[in-house]
Amino acid sequence: MKASQGQIVEFGSHLIHRAEWITPPDAVSWFPQTTLWKLVAFSCLLLIIGYVIYRIHQYLSRAYLRDAWTLYQNYASERKINRIATLLKRLAHQHWPEESIGTMNTAEFAEFIAQRTNNCLTYAQVIELVQTSYCLKPNVSSTTLDAVHRWFQEVTC
Questions:
Q1: Residue 70 lies in a domain
Q2: Is residue 77 within a helix (H) or strand (E), and if so which, with residue range?
């Protein structure tokens, strides 16, 4: 045993006797402490939830437009003119429910559709589509089919 070992132990022992157990301070909270910040956070949460509900409602309320576009694409690829004319009437009836489309004759319906579009479907084209849809083998000009395609694209997309 060396003489210096006893001195080190004695030197360290008086520090250990004086040592006290100190608890560390609590961590700073990330949660706001004031009521105003809680109200702001709650308001933001409500706004986000409201926006999500609004977007879901919009998505569900426009389901008929997505279905109409899908049906139109199927009918156009198969060149089913009579079904396209029927779909045009059904979509117009669904899209403008405040109008009494079901009671309109062909001329009134054609005028109604021509007024509601941005010059993509004219009165004469609607008349041609509707009148030829009653034929056994309907035949419509390519310009009318292009105009009907633009109309469906404008209304549904």
A1: yes
A2: helix 63-78
* 19 domain residue, yes or no: no
Residue 7's identity, in one-letter code, is Q
Over the stretch 124-145, which tens digit does the pLDDT of each residue have? 988 888 888 787 787 888 888 8
Q: Structural domain of residue 99, as residue ranges?
A: 63-156
Nearest-angstrom CA–CA distance, 123 and 110: 5
Half-sphere exposure at residue 59, Cβ-oriented, CA atoms within 13 angstroms: 6
Structure tokens at 16: 């250990």
The answer to whether the predicted template modeling score (pTM) of the entire model surpasses 0.70 is: no
Mean pLDDT, the chain, as a whole number? 85
Rounded to whole angstroms, the Cα distance separating 15 from 125 reads 102
- CA dist., res. 156 & res. 94, Å (int): 12
Are the C-beta atoms of 136 and 129 separated by less than 8 Å? no
Find how far residue 77's CA is from the centre of its chain: 27
Collapsing DSSP to helix, strand or coil, 141 comes out as coil
Q: CA–CA separation, 110 vs 125, rounded Å?
A: 8
Number of domains, the chain: 1
Cα separations in angstroms, 38 against 17, 30, 32, 45:
47, 12, 7, 11
